[in-house]
UniProtKB/TrEMBL annotation:
Species in which this protein is naturally found: Streptomyces niveus (Streptomyces spheroides)
Keywords attached to this entry: Hydrolase
GO molecular function: hydrolase activity
Keyword hit for Hydrolase: yes
Record-given protein name: Glycoside hydrolase family 13 protein
SUPFAM superfamilies linked: (Trans)glycosidases
Length: 556
């Protein structure tokens, strides 16, 4: 854990390193599903504060809180109607202050989400825009255009929403507005000076309240090519979440102009001490990702290449090399991510055949093919040791430390993701990775809270609970706890070198320890070295398939 302040009750702490984030482990708290103190079935800030000991005990350095701002909840909080408040379902600003104080007291940093690409259609600006005529200043904060065709009844361009359907919605006076996501999430116009100024104020607001940084939602989408006539994309916009095609000059993804925004933000961030950070959610090509983390822009960017990498030694090696060289070229280190609230949980992904389309599999009911859970279990444990050994910062998604699988059999009427309705109930969205956490084997919603839970917890959920895993040496939770404590002992040396490896094996040295992972189907004899930790048993001195081991370099 990293000290946050210089003077803490109980004695002075060492000065926080200005670059504490380079090798930090950040735990993603998906606020609606972490812990619910008030019993309304939806997670809240007080619930998180009550459970901070779990995070401190796990050994993470920081938590990232997903949006908890006032929101009509079309997209579970990623549709913000007031950027400077707390939604009553999640608590109050005082609850936020208290959470930050308590987290800092435990040596934990607190990163909040900023959602700058779009707001909610219930935001006062959008209400004002709708009440104002075409061409007005109020409309200019959004992207309003006339439609095509003789009566303007066709959308201004063929752009598609990432949640299905078109990216334009018509208003009663005949104009259309743009939304990359749902119609209730109108895109803001980042060429408008009100928008720029307001977000600078929003950043300062949360920094002044003690936030240690921001996760930037859809960081690659803010600037659009709005030169008339708008260019069609030919449908190349929404094949999957955040995956623009490399190298294309796309009208709304990954445009060069977006970097001006982050240069301005960085100046604000750097005016605060101790050091605050920013991390980009930017689904861009590996060649373009480092541009977001140049020294005068954002600090980090999520590494979705690692998340998407097939279970294959050569593929991982390529991703690791590309990530390290890209990050180093701009003087930083990569992040490593296996799961988040938008993707099928990795335990389940690893239990399915390579190359499968996970969302299609989910939409088909999650039974064809049936997941091989024992395989997913082994691989998820090995992947944790791989991820936590690599140089850079690791982002853990809540529940991965419990080995939670995707819940793929939620009843239709329980689904809340807008993707479900916007695709005419054909694409099951992201609810299955957002099921409220189990804290206790039994009791009301397995300790999530005194009420129910906004998404149903399936039978057997209690077996994954924190109390069911605590003290059980073979549990996921104890693996993560030990891995994080070993990682902390070895932190500080960023050096990385590949070691000679056998077929299907990854082997590397990171600072003073070595990591080996067997991705082949054959057991491999264990090399020399004192074992620090293994993801599974090393019976007969062999590294079994889908197993990882950390060993100390002699003298390390
Ligand atoms: C990315 C977020 O992670 C996702 O949950 C959200 O739906 C979209 N951005 C829109 O804000």
């Amino acid at each position: 854990m990293i000290p946050n302040t210089l003077d803490t009750p109980g004695g002075p702490l060492s000065r926080p390193a200005p670059d504490w984030w380079r090798e930090a482990v950040v735990y993603q708290v998906y606020v609606p599903s972490f812990a619910d103190a008030d019993g309304d079935g939806i997670g809240d800030l007080r619930g998180i504060t009550d459970r901070l000991d779990h995070l401190a005990g796990l050994g993470v350095d920081a938590l990232w809180l997903t949006p908890f701002y006032p929101s009509p909840w079309t997209d579970a909080g990623y549709d913000v109607s007031d950027y400077r408040g707390v939604d009553p379902r999640h608590g109050t600003l005082d609850d936020f202050r208290h959470l930050v104080r308590r987290a800092h007291g435990l040596g934990l940093k607190v990163i909040v989400d900023v959602v700058p690409n779009h707001c909610s259609d219930q935001h006062p600006w959008f209400a004002e825009a709708l009440a104002s005529p075409p061409g007005s200043a109020a409309r200019d904060r959004f992207i309003f255009r006339e439609g095509r065709g003789p009566d303007g009844s066709l959308p201004p361009a063929d752009w598609k929403s990432k949640f299905g359907g078109g990216a334009w919605t018509r208003v009663p006076d005949g104009q259309w507005y743009m939304h990359i996501f749902s119609a209730e999430q109108p895109d803001l116009n980042w060429e408008n000076s009100d928008v720029l100024a307001d977000f600078e104020g929003i950043l300062r607001f949360w920094l002044d309240l003690g936030a240690d940084g921001f996760r930037v939602d859809v960081a690659h989408g803010l600037r659009k090519d709005l030169v008339e006539p708008l260019r069609d994309t030919g449908g190349r916009d929404s094949a999957s979440l955040n995956s623009p095609t490399e190298g294309e000059d796309h009208p709304f993804w990954d445009r060069d102009e977006v970097h001006e925004i982050y240069r301005a933000w960085r100046k604000i961030i750097d005016s605060y001490a101790p050091a605050r950070i920013t991390v980009a959610e930017a689904g861009v090509s590996a060649a373009r990702l480092p541009l977001y983390t140049r020294p005068d822009e954002l600090h980090q960017a999520f590494n979705f290449f690692h998340l998407r990498c097939p279970w294959d030694a050569e593929e991982f090696r390529k991703v690791i090399d590309t990530s390290l060289s890209g990050a180093r070229a701009v003087g930083t280190l990569p992040t490593w991510v296996l799961s988040n609230h938008d993707v099928v949980r990795h335990r389940t992904r690893y239990s399915l055949p390579q190359g499968i389309d996970y969302r299609a599999w989910l939409s088909g009911g999650g039974t064809d093919p049936a997941p091989d859970d024992a395989l997913g279990h082994r691989r998820a444990r090995a992947a944790a040791l791989l991820t936590l050994a690599l140089p850079g910062s690791a982002y853990l998604y809540q529940g991965e430390e419990l080995g939670l699988p995707e819940v793929f059999d939620l009843p239709d009427d329980a689904l809340r993701d807008p993707m479900w309705e916007r695709t005419g109930r054909t694409t099951r969205g992201r609810d299955g990775c957002r099921i409220p956490l189990p804290w206790t084997r039994s009791g009301s919603s397995h300790g999530f809270g005194p009420g129910g839970s906004w998404l149903p917890q399936p039978d057997g959920w209690g077996e994954y609970a924190v109390d069911a895993q605590t003290g059980r040496p073979d549990s996921f939770l104890e693996l993560y706890r030990t891995a994080l404590s070993v990682r902390t002992r070895f932190r500080g040396d960023e050096s990385f070198a590949w070691l000679p490896a056998r077929d299907g094996e990854l082997a590397f040295r990171k600072g003073r320890f070595e990591c080996r992972i067997n991705l082949s189907e054959t057991p491999l004899p264990l090399p020399d070295g004192a074992v620090l930790l293994a993801s599974d048993s090393l019976e007969g001195n062999m590294l079994a398939p889908d197993t990882a081991v950390w060993t100390a370099v002699t003298g390390g």
